[in-house]
Amino acid sequence: MSRFATWSTWRRRALVFLAAAFCVALFRAVLPSRTLASNLEENSDYRGSYAPVARRIMQGRGPVLEDGTPLLRYPPGYSFALAGAFAASEAVGVSEERGLVLLQVASFALAALLLFEIASLLWPWPRSLLTPIAFSTYPLALWATTVAGSETVFLPALYACFLAFCAAVRTPGPAVRAGLACGITAGVAMLIRSAAIGLGLLMAGLALFGIGGKKPAERMILAAVILVGSLCAIAPWQFWLRAKTGDFRMLGGGLASVRDGLTFTGPLKRKTITQRKYRREIPVSEGLAELTHVVEQRYSRLRSLSDVAALLREQLRERPAAVAELVVRKIARSWYGTDSGRYEWAIVVMQLLYAIPVALGLRAAWRSGRKLSRGLVCAAVAVVVYSWAMTVVVLSIVRYMMPAIGLLFAFLPALGSAPPAADSGRWRETAVPSPARGSG
C-alpha cells in the first residue's frame, strides 16, 4: 500500500485511463451481441445522419448531406470524431464498427481521467480514486457507450471545460490561459451536442459569480476570456456555414429532438422521419394522448422552434392540464426515461442507489468549509440544473442527463473527509496535499 501511495502522477493517470477502458471492454463483453446490435440499430440519428456525414467528410466533401447542402440538423463535432475513427479503422484494416467502439472506449476512459483530475484538485490520493471508480462502474455511462450516440464523445469536452474552470478559479488573478481553455473546450462541447449551446455563457456567469474569491475586475476579465474562447472554437464552423448558406446558424438547431420530445408516449402512428417502432406505449391521461395526436398531425408543419412554441401556446389554452402533465412527466423522465421505454423501473432503483452517496458527498464537500470545494459544488450543481433544463426542452431521457450526473462523482471523495471545524460556516481555503511525484 505504501508503494501504491507513492506512485508518480503519470502512473496514477495511466492506471485510471486503463482501468476505465477495461471496465467498458468488460461491460461490452458480457452484454449479448443481440443487445449491442439492437442498440446500434435503434439509433436512427447515427445511421441516418452522423455516420453518413462522417463518410462524406472522409471523402473530402465536408459535413454535408447527400445533396451537398450543409449539415444543419446536428452540430458537426461528432461526425468529425467519427470520420477520424473511420479513417483509423480503414488504415488498420478493420470495420467501421470496430473504429466506433474504439472511439467510444477512448472517450469514456479520457472522461474518467478528467474526472480524476478534477477530484485530485480537492482531495488527496488515493481518496480521489473513488471518483473514477464510481464513474467507470456507473451503468448509465457504460450503457451510453453501446448506443453510438454523441454523449460519450461529449463527456471529455464537458469535463475538460469544468477542469479548466477549476484551474481558472484556483489561479490568482484573471487566469487568462485557464479561462481561454475553459472557453475553447466549452465551444468544442457545443460543436458536439447542441444542448451545450449555453455552456460558455454558463461558465462565464459562474466566473462572474465570484467562485475563487477574485476581485470584480478579475472576474469580468475571466468571464470575457471564457466567452472569447467559446467563440473562437465555433467560429470556423460558423464562417464555413456563412460561406455555404449566406447566414450564421444556431448550432444544430435542436428542432428534431424538441419535436420528438413531444411524442415520447409510444411509436408514432403517422409516418414522419421515423415511426420509432421500438418504443413501448407509456400510459398517459386522455388529455395528453390527444395532445400527442395533435402534434403528430402537425409534425411536418413544425419547421422551427417558433412553430413548436405556437403549438404549445395553443394547446395551453385548450388543454392546460395536458400541457402541465407533459411538462411534469418530462421533468421527471429526465432522470430515468429511455427512448425505447425499456428498463425504466430498474433505472429508477439504480439512480436512487447512486443518489444517496452523491448527495452525501456534495453535503460533505460543502460542510468542509473550504472556499474552493463550496464554490465548485455550486458550479457542478449549476451545470446539472442547466443540463436538466435542456433535457426537459428536448427528448427527456436520462442518457442526455448522464454527462452532467457524472460530474457530481467528483465530490464522492468528500465522504472520507475529516469532520469540519467549529467555524466551518466561514469560507476559507485549506491546502490539499499535492500528489507525490516519485520517479515511478
Would you mind describing this structure in some detail?
The chain has 440 residues and is an all-alpha fold. It has three domains: 145 residues, no CATH class; 99 residues, no CATH class; 168 residues, no CATH class. Helix content is 65%, strand content 0%. The chain contains 19 helices and no strands. The radius of gyration is 22 Å and the shape is globular.
Summarize this structure as a short list of keywords or feature phrases:
disordered C terminus; mainly alpha; 65% helix; 440 residues
Task: Spell out the blueprint of helices and strands.
Elements: H1 2-5, H2 9-30, H3 33-42, H4 44-58, H5 77-92, H6 96-122, H7 130-136, H8 139-144, H9 151-170, H10 176-192, H11 199-209, H12 216-245, H13 255-260, H14 286-297, H15 305-318, H16 320-333, H17 344-367, H18 371-393, H19 398-407
Helix pairs in contact: 2-6, 2-7, 4-5, 5-6, 6-7, 6-9, 9-10, 9-19, 10-11, 10-12, 11-12, 11-18, 14-16, 15-16, 16-18, 18-19
The CA-CA distance between the termini, in Å, is 14 Å
Element-level helix/strand string: HHHHHHHHHHHHHHHHHHH
Question: Main sheet, how many strands, which sense, barrel?
Answer: none
Helical fraction: 55-70%
| Shape estimate | globular
The number of strands is: 0
What number of domains? 3
Mean pLDDT: 87
Structural class: mainly alpha
Poorly predicted tracts of residues: 270-274, 419-440
Strand content: under 5%
The Rg value, from CA coordinates, equals 22 Å
The number of helical elements comes to 19
